[in-house]
Amino acid sequence: MKLIFIRHGDPNYEKDSLTDKGWREAELLAKRVEEWNVKEFFVSPLGRAQDTARVSLEKIGRKAKTLDWLKEFFVLIDDPMGGKKWIPWDFLPSWWTKQEILYDRDRWALESHLATGSVETEQKKVIRGIDTLLKEYGYVRKERYYEVINPNKDTLVFFCHMGVQLLILSHLLGIAAPVLWHGMFTAPTSVTILCTEEQNKGEAFFRCKCLGDTSHLYVAKEEPSNSGFFKEIYE
Question: I want to staple 177 with a disulfide (CB 3.0 to 4.6 A). Which of 49, 92, 170, 202 is the partner?
Protein backbone atom coordinates (compact mmCIF):
# COMPACT_ATOMS: atom_id res chain seq x y z
CA MET A 1 0.00 0.00 0.00
CA LYS A 2 1.12 3.53 -0.75
CA LEU A 3 0.13 6.65 1.21
CA ILE A 4 0.75 10.05 -0.39
CA PHE A 5 0.47 13.18 1.75
CA ILE A 6 0.21 16.55 0.02
CA ARG A 7 0.47 19.84 1.86
CA HIS A 8 -1.84 22.61 0.65
CA GLY A 9 -0.50 25.35 -1.62
CA ASP A 10 1.06 28.61 -0.44
CA PRO A 11 -1.60 29.79 2.03
CA ASN A 12 -3.60 32.92 2.53
CA TYR A 13 -4.37 32.21 6.18
CA GLU A 14 -6.60 35.27 6.56
CA LYS A 15 -9.00 33.92 3.92
CA ASP A 16 -8.19 30.25 4.57
CA SER A 17 -7.45 29.91 0.87
CA LEU A 18 -4.41 30.24 -1.40
CA THR A 19 -2.26 33.11 -2.52
CA ASP A 20 -1.74 33.75 -6.24
CA LYS A 21 1.45 31.72 -5.88
CA GLY A 22 -0.49 28.98 -4.13
CA TRP A 23 -2.90 28.68 -7.04
CA ARG A 24 0.03 28.39 -9.47
CA GLU A 25 1.52 25.68 -7.29
CA ALA A 26 -1.79 23.83 -7.21
CA GLU A 27 -1.99 23.87 -11.02
CA LEU A 28 1.53 22.45 -11.31
CA LEU A 29 0.73 19.82 -8.70
CA ALA A 30 -2.35 18.74 -10.66
CA LYS A 31 -0.18 17.84 -13.65
CA ARG A 32 1.65 15.42 -11.36
CA VAL A 33 -1.43 13.99 -9.68
CA GLU A 34 -3.12 13.15 -12.98
CA GLU A 35 -0.34 10.64 -13.69
CA TRP A 36 -1.09 8.60 -10.55
CA ASN A 37 -3.30 5.54 -10.24
CA VAL A 38 -5.19 6.50 -7.08
CA LYS A 39 -7.68 4.32 -5.23
CA GLU A 40 -9.11 7.09 -3.04
CA PHE A 41 -8.59 10.77 -2.25
CA PHE A 42 -9.05 12.34 1.17
CA VAL A 43 -8.96 16.02 2.15
CA SER A 44 -8.95 18.25 5.21
CA PRO A 45 -12.11 20.35 5.75
CA LEU A 46 -10.08 23.59 5.81
CA GLY A 47 -10.33 25.89 2.82
CA ARG A 48 -6.66 25.97 1.80
CA ALA A 49 -6.56 22.17 1.55
CA GLN A 50 -9.94 22.00 -0.19
CA ASP A 51 -8.81 24.58 -2.76
CA THR A 52 -5.57 22.75 -3.45
CA ALA A 53 -7.33 19.43 -3.85
CA ARG A 54 -10.07 20.83 -6.08
CA VAL A 55 -7.59 21.87 -8.79
CA SER A 56 -6.29 18.29 -9.11
CA LEU A 57 -9.67 16.59 -8.67
CA GLU A 58 -11.44 18.68 -11.31
CA LYS A 59 -8.62 17.95 -13.75
CA ILE A 60 -9.12 14.19 -13.41
CA GLY A 61 -12.86 14.10 -12.73
CA ARG A 62 -12.56 12.65 -9.22
CA LYS A 63 -13.92 13.50 -5.78
CA ALA A 64 -12.37 13.34 -2.32
CA LYS A 65 -13.76 12.36 1.05
CA THR A 66 -13.48 15.14 3.62
CA LEU A 67 -12.11 13.90 6.95
CA ASP A 68 -12.31 16.15 9.99
CA TRP A 69 -9.21 14.64 11.62
CA LEU A 70 -7.08 15.77 8.66
CA LYS A 71 -7.49 19.45 9.62
CA GLU A 72 -4.41 21.24 10.91
CA PHE A 73 -3.27 20.19 14.38
CA PHE A 74 -3.98 23.58 15.92
CA VAL A 75 -4.15 23.16 19.71
CA LEU A 76 -3.33 26.07 22.01
CA ILE A 77 -1.11 25.49 25.04
CA ASP A 78 0.78 27.63 27.54
CA ASP A 79 3.96 28.95 25.92
CA PRO A 80 6.95 27.76 27.99
CA MET A 81 8.94 30.84 26.91
CA GLY A 82 6.28 33.38 27.91
CA GLY A 83 2.78 33.97 29.25
CA LYS A 84 0.83 33.67 26.00
CA LYS A 85 -0.97 30.76 24.37
CA TRP A 86 0.93 28.91 21.65
CA ILE A 87 0.75 25.95 19.29
CA PRO A 88 2.61 22.76 20.35
CA TRP A 89 5.57 23.39 18.04
CA ASP A 90 7.81 26.28 16.99
CA PHE A 91 9.64 26.21 20.34
CA LEU A 92 13.16 27.54 20.73
CA PRO A 93 15.80 24.79 20.59
CA SER A 94 17.33 26.03 23.85
CA TRP A 95 14.09 24.92 25.53
CA TRP A 96 12.60 21.96 23.71
CA THR A 97 15.81 19.99 23.23
CA LYS A 98 16.22 19.87 27.01
CA GLN A 99 12.82 18.27 27.55
CA GLU A 100 13.60 14.56 27.36
CA ILE A 101 9.91 13.64 27.35
CA LEU A 102 9.49 15.37 23.97
CA TYR A 103 11.73 12.67 22.47
CA ASP A 104 9.56 9.89 23.90
CA ARG A 105 7.35 8.48 21.12
CA ASP A 106 4.74 7.28 23.63
CA ARG A 107 4.70 10.07 26.22
CA TRP A 108 5.58 13.33 24.45
CA ALA A 109 1.99 14.67 24.63
CA LEU A 110 2.17 14.46 28.44
CA GLU A 111 4.87 17.13 28.73
CA SER A 112 3.61 19.65 31.32
CA HIS A 113 3.18 22.60 28.90
CA LEU A 114 1.57 20.49 26.19
CA ALA A 115 -0.76 19.11 28.86
CA THR A 116 -2.21 22.61 29.38
CA GLY A 117 -4.15 22.11 26.16
CA SER A 118 -6.01 19.20 24.56
CA VAL A 119 -2.90 17.91 22.76
CA GLU A 120 -3.21 14.30 23.92
CA THR A 121 -6.95 14.16 23.16
CA GLU A 122 -6.52 15.62 19.67
CA GLN A 123 -3.50 13.40 19.00
CA LYS A 124 -5.59 10.34 19.78
CA LYS A 125 -8.30 11.53 17.36
CA VAL A 126 -5.77 11.72 14.53
CA ILE A 127 -4.25 8.34 15.39
CA ARG A 128 -7.66 6.75 15.63
CA GLY A 129 -8.58 8.32 12.29
CA ILE A 130 -5.60 7.01 10.33
CA ASP A 131 -5.69 3.55 11.96
CA THR A 132 -9.42 3.16 11.35
CA LEU A 133 -8.92 4.10 7.70
CA LEU A 134 -6.01 1.71 7.24
CA LYS A 135 -8.07 -1.07 8.82
CA GLU A 136 -10.72 -0.53 6.14
CA TYR A 137 -8.02 -1.20 3.56
CA GLY A 138 -6.72 -4.33 5.24
CA TYR A 139 -3.95 -3.08 7.54
CA VAL A 140 -4.66 -3.47 11.26
CA ARG A 141 -2.52 -1.80 13.90
CA LYS A 142 -0.82 -4.33 16.16
CA GLU A 143 1.53 -2.88 18.77
CA ARG A 144 3.86 -0.75 16.61
CA TYR A 145 3.39 -2.37 13.22
CA TYR A 146 0.44 -3.48 11.06
CA GLU A 147 -1.08 -6.90 10.63
CA VAL A 148 -1.86 -7.45 6.95
CA ILE A 149 -5.38 -8.82 6.54
CA ASN A 150 -5.79 -7.84 2.90
CA PRO A 151 -2.45 -7.12 1.18
CA ASN A 152 -2.84 -4.68 -1.70
CA LYS A 153 -1.09 -2.06 -3.80
CA ASP A 154 -3.72 0.64 -3.35
CA THR A 155 -2.64 4.28 -3.38
CA LEU A 156 -4.38 6.67 -0.98
CA VAL A 157 -3.84 10.42 -1.32
CA PHE A 158 -4.31 12.93 1.50
CA PHE A 159 -4.52 16.70 0.96
CA CYS A 160 -3.81 18.24 4.35
CA HIS A 161 -1.37 20.33 6.40
CA MET A 162 2.22 20.13 7.62
CA GLY A 163 1.46 19.81 11.33
CA VAL A 164 -1.06 17.00 11.06
CA GLN A 165 0.93 15.28 8.31
CA LEU A 166 4.01 15.08 10.52
CA LEU A 167 1.87 13.90 13.42
CA ILE A 168 0.59 11.01 11.28
CA LEU A 169 4.15 10.18 10.22
CA SER A 170 5.21 10.18 13.86
CA HIS A 171 2.62 7.47 14.53
CA LEU A 172 3.39 5.37 11.46
CA LEU A 173 7.17 5.57 11.88
CA GLY A 174 7.41 5.51 15.68
CA ILE A 175 9.06 8.92 16.11
CA ALA A 176 7.96 11.53 18.65
CA ALA A 177 5.95 14.25 16.90
CA PRO A 178 7.91 17.20 18.41
CA VAL A 179 11.10 15.84 16.84
CA LEU A 180 9.47 15.85 13.40
CA TRP A 181 7.71 19.20 13.94
CA HIS A 182 11.03 20.88 14.76
CA GLY A 183 13.33 18.86 12.52
CA MET A 184 11.35 18.44 9.30
CA PHE A 185 9.76 20.83 6.80
CA THR A 186 7.32 20.14 3.98
CA ALA A 187 6.79 23.03 1.57
CA PRO A 188 3.38 23.96 0.14
CA THR A 189 2.14 21.36 -2.42
CA SER A 190 5.07 19.11 -1.50
CA VAL A 191 4.59 15.36 -1.84
CA THR A 192 5.46 12.83 0.88
CA ILE A 193 5.24 9.11 0.10
CA LEU A 194 5.10 6.16 2.49
CA CYS A 195 4.89 2.54 1.39
CA THR A 196 4.27 -0.65 3.32
CA GLU A 197 7.06 -3.18 3.49
CA GLU A 198 6.15 -6.79 4.33
CA GLN A 199 9.42 -8.52 5.22
CA ASN A 200 7.53 -11.26 7.03
CA LYS A 201 4.22 -12.45 5.62
CA GLY A 202 1.35 -10.72 7.35
CA GLU A 203 3.50 -8.07 9.07
CA ALA A 204 3.87 -4.61 7.53
CA PHE A 205 5.71 -1.45 8.46
CA PHE A 206 5.61 1.87 6.65
CA ARG A 207 8.78 3.31 5.14
CA CYS A 208 9.15 6.89 3.92
CA LYS A 209 10.30 6.93 0.29
CA CYS A 210 10.36 10.72 0.04
CA LEU A 211 9.44 13.66 2.24
CA GLY A 212 8.45 17.09 1.02
CA ASP A 213 9.27 16.55 -2.66
CA THR A 214 8.63 19.63 -4.83
CA SER A 215 10.06 18.46 -8.15
CA HIS A 216 6.81 19.45 -9.92
CA LEU A 217 7.63 23.06 -8.98
CA TYR A 218 11.30 22.97 -9.94
CA VAL A 219 10.48 21.52 -13.35
CA ALA A 220 8.31 24.57 -14.02
CA LYS A 221 10.89 26.93 -12.49
CA GLU A 222 8.47 27.83 -9.68
CA GLU A 223 10.42 28.45 -6.48
CA PRO A 224 8.96 26.49 -3.54
CA SER A 225 7.38 28.57 -0.80
CA ASN A 226 8.99 28.76 2.65
CA SER A 227 5.61 29.24 4.32
CA GLY A 228 5.71 27.39 7.63
CA PHE A 229 9.49 27.49 7.95
CA PHE A 230 10.62 28.83 11.33
CA LYS A 231 11.64 32.49 11.17
CA GLU A 232 15.28 33.24 11.81
CA ILE A 233 16.04 36.13 14.13
CA TYR A 234 19.32 38.03 14.01
CA GLU A 235 20.62 40.54 16.53
Answer: 170
